[in-house]
Amino acid sequence: LDLIKDDTCGVQLYQRFEQLEYEYEASVERKRNALAAADAGKGPVKKPRQQEIRGATIEEGKEAMKHGMNERFSEDKKTRRRKGSKNKGNLQITRKLGDATLHYAHGRYKEAASVLSEVVVQAPKLPDPFHILGLMYNSMGEKKKAMDCYMIAAFLGPKESSLWKLLVTLSIEQGNTGQAWYCIKKAITADPNDITLRYHFASLCMEMGEYHKAADSYHQIVQVCPDNVEALQTATMLYKKCGQFERTIGILEDYLKDHPPKDDPSVVEMLVSVYMERNEHSKALERIEHARRVFSCGEEFPLNLTIREGICHAHLGDLEKAEFYFSTLQKDNAKLRMGLVMAVANSFMSLQHYESALKYYLMLEGCASNNDLISVKIARCYSALKKSASAIQFYYKALQAREHDVDTRLTLTSLLMEENRDDEALALLSPPPNSALSNETDVDGSQPWWLNVKVKLKLSHIYKTKRMLEAYVEVMYPIIHESLTIDSMHQKVKQRKRLTESELLERVQVLGDRQTDSVFGNFRQPASKNVILKAHRAKKSLQKMATSKEEMKCAALAAGLDWESDDSEDEVPEPPL
């Protein structure tokens, strides 16, 4: 029971296990590198012990030695120990575990703890007593001790997936994401075919912003269940979000090698979308044409792929063929196919085919919920076609729905100025009559449009052009005054915080912290790289401080002066990050 402490000094048990595993793996890696160097003839190296078998874990080494020894000593096995001595010890432990279980079942927790303590002394690597202790503490309501006992039991029996799964559930319930992350990885190692665990792991990764690891988890689900299209789509979406387009394409291509496109056209569509995002429209077109050949004559080809086929032809310069594939999109069915119509219009817009883009944007006018966005796009098309009057009309229409859109307001102002409609431009940029009552920021943190600097600068430019100097000064003076105030504030250099010697000593403790009251006390307290870096800098600062003090002391004594040092006032500048 002394293994379970109430005071963990801020370090959780799973973090100590992580540190243990990290140090073990680092040690094994160093020995492997040394053996590799010896094989390459780079010099003598210390002979490894029996357990340090190159390229194998300790368990594999033990198994190999056990196999060899069984063959070598099969004849004189009886002479190495008295028959039944090992089984007798096992029977004693089994009997004590049974007694402890009975004590626990009848609520005699003190007696159960006493028996289990004896078992731990006799068999410290046996997970069963810690598991029973965890059950006992859980019944007593001591959740922290129960969790620690479960953790030790799982660590001693890493192949027991049920314990790791229990720890995952408890960690999630307690909101301990770090511990849940550690335990779920162990649970997956113990039971790699449990899909639910991999889904939980992917969710945890996404919560922590580890999108690449989440993508790997979903990809592993696909490898276990090749027909899981949902996991496939999520994995490719996350890989794409991480910028790994080649990986995304490879996964989708591998899936389509074993699954005909007609089984799930959405996978083909996703692959085509990735190619199109990379401007590889010829490859996208090849994939669509291959899918079209696979579909039988009587089967209807998916409309989404048909439209994407037309977009590919448009980007490859064959507008006539593109329009042929777009012929199914008409004004009367645009409301049902808004996404496809918008995709076609946006493609023509990006290709600067404004007439064609305008045709499809006009199909969506009045159909879409975001009609203000459609109005802006229509206005841009008219503006590019030098039809300013129509462009102004649609910009006004968009501005009615998005009053605080500064860019739309400024663009409309420029068009009005080009059409010599200066009064309208001034009215468009001038604050409303009741603006003095609403100069505060909105609930969402944004300022009213008339307080935007771009609007003020545009308005001042119009005043200056029209020789309205008084109005020009009234608008520009607050902007210039604010700019000068900010510049003067930036010129004041802020003094860097200085750290006292006691603060430096506190930082250095991370490097030498040992938990002497715990069985895991030989492992350094886990800390982030940033904290360790600060600790090393603090250590150097303390060394410099000590050297400086010694020099000052010697100089004072040499001059015949008394040396006095007030450590409480010693400060050094905080090392930069």
TrEMBL record:
Protein name stated in the entry: Uncharacterized protein
Renumbered ranges of TPR repeats: 127-160, 195-228
The keyword Cell wall biogenesis/degradation is assigned to this record: no
Any single Pfam family the record assigns to this protein: TPR_19
Disordered, as annotated region: 68-91
Domain of life: Eukaryota
Cited InterPro entries: Tfc4/TFIIIC-102/Sfc4, TPR-like_helical_dom_sf, TPR_rpt
Keyword tags: TPR repeat
Entry GO terms, CC: transcription factor TFIIIC complex
Comp. bias (Basic and acidic residues): 68-78
Alphabetized PANTHER family for the sequence: GENERAL TRANSCRIPTION FACTOR 3C POLYPEPTIDE 3, TRANSCRIPTION INITIATION FACTOR IIIC TFIIIC , POLYPEPTIDE 3-RELATED
GO BP annotations listed: transcription by RNA polymerase III
Species for this entry: Opuntia streptacantha (Prickly pear cactus)
